[in-house]
């Protein structure tokens, strides 16, 4: 039932346990608890390889509440980091959209770039390190070629200037170099603020950096493409952009605002499918309503519906992961059994001899949950997993306790957020995100 013995680092062990106990997806150690999803992960890995080879990719990860969208996205993000990609990610919210006119799109961009991660900085905040790496490599190359650093930087930044707004990116990066050369920390900080989309006025940007434009609502997508070029120039494989909670676009009451967001999504889809951009990929997570609702979802926009429609031959259990849409199925009881076994192994730090409960405790726990809340225990397993983690925590801290005695004390209730996914008036309700209901995922 359990995986082959593999030592789990204390930091990963503690992070996983704390996150699961709180009902959220852990940021570290996902590989230790993942289950299933081999075909889906393989498809996303091919996307990552395509990005590294100079191509582009776009995916819509679609699933019911509890199907595993957030977990799946986090897992792919970590795998992309291992393959030398840079990742940025953000959740859409009422104040964060792909297109807007009141600062919401710039807010989404800023949040995503603040979460910028690399393999050595997986928890975010990697922008400064990436820019510094570009400058350091330029200084080294200039010394080897006996030319000025400015010339090398200009050569490196030439690809960025091909994009809309790319000239401003190059100007700001040159300003960062000048700040580094003259130990002007204020100039370096201003350059990083500009790249993060934190300037709200063009006047301030012109005074501090000598550029006439800023990253604003109307150029977020173009700025992401320039950012992807920057990561490639700095020596990385490319950029993977991940947007979760796309249901917030579905929730927009104003049809014009929804359609403007759909137009931006259409640009992304067209550029990716037609090969008009390079070294960038998008993963967007949402519910089936966000995709297929013909009144307010992506399918309400005819051009998107034609590009995202299902393969008519993928029926009767047949799957097709070659298109932009990837649908995730709900957790099965068998998957949950493996998941509980994996969690037990995390508590044992990878040593089966230190398991807190025997194999028979796992199906017994699942049967208890089934009797308490029915099939919801595996379709939306947040509370189920949380209860199991809490039970193991008590056993760990009380060596004399017996799991059979604790089992009768376990209280499990159906996750209320599952009922909030769609309100009576048809508007989507946002709970805490997919979080633990996401634990269907894995390799």
TrEMBL record:
Give the span(s) annotated as Disordered.
416-443
InterPro entries the record matches: BrxD (IPR021228), P-loop_NTPase (IPR027417)
Domain of life, per UniProt, equals Bacteria
Pfam families on file: BrxC_BrxD
**What are the transmembrane regions?**
none
Gene3D superfamilies given in the database record: P-loop containing nucleotide triphosphate hydrolases
Q: What is this protein called?
A: DUF2791 domain-containing protein
């Amino acid at each position: 039932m359990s995986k082959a013995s593999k030592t789990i680092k204390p930091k990963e062990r503690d992070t996983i346990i704390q996150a699961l106990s709180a009902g959220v997806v852990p940021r570290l150690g996902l590989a230790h608890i993942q289950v299933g999803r081999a075909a889906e992960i393989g498809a996303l890995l091919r996307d990552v390889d395509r990005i590294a080879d100079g191509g582009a990719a776009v995916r819509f990860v679609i699933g019911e509440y509890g199907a595993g969208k957030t977990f799946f996205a986090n897992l792919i993000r970590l795998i992309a980091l291992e393959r030398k990609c840079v990742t940025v990610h953000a959740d859409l919210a009422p104040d964060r959209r792909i297109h807007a006119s009141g600062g919401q799109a710039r807010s989404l961009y800023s949040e995503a770039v603040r979460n910028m991660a690399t393999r050595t900085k997986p928890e975010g905040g990697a922008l400064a390190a990436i820019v510094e790496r570009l400058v350091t490599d330029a200084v080294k190359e200039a010394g080897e070629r006996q030319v000025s650093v400015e010339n090398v930087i200009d050569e490196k930044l030439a690809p960025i200037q091909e994009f809309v707004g790319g000239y401003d990116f190059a100007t700001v990066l040159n300003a960062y170099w000048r700040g580094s050369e003259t130990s002007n920390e204020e100039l370096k900080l201003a350059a990083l603020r500009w790249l993060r989309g934190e300037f709200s006025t063009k006047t301030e940007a012109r005074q501090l950096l000598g550029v006439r434009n800023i990253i604003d609502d109307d150029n977020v997508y173009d700025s992401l493409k320039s950012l992807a070029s920057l990561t490639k120039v700095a020596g990385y494989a490319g950029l993977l952009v991940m947007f979760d909670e796309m249901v917030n676009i579905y929730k927009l009451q104003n049809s014009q605002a929804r359609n403007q967001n759909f137009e931006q999504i259409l640009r992304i889809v067209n550029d990716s499918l037609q090969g008009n951009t390079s070294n960038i990929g998008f993963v967007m997570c949402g519910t089936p309503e966000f995709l297929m609702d013909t009144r307010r979802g992506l399918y309400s926009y005819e051009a998107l519906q034609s590009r995202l429609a299902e393969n008519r031959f993928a029926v009767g259990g047949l799957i097709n992961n070659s298109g932009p849409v990837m649908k995730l199925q709900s957790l099965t009881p068998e998957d949950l059994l493996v998941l509980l076994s994996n969690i037990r192994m995390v508590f044992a730090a990878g040593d089966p001899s230190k398991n807190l409960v025997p194999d028979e405790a796992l199906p017994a726990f699942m049967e208890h949950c089934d009797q308490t809340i029915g099939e919801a225990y595996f379709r939306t397993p947040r509370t189920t997993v949380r209860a199991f983690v809490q039970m193991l925590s008590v056993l760990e801290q009380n060596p004399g306790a017996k799991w059979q005695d604790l089992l009768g004390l376990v209280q499990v209730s159906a996750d209320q957020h599952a009922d909030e996914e769609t309100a009576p008036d048809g508007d989507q309700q946002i709970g805490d995100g997919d979080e633990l209901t996401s634990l269907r995922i894995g390799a």
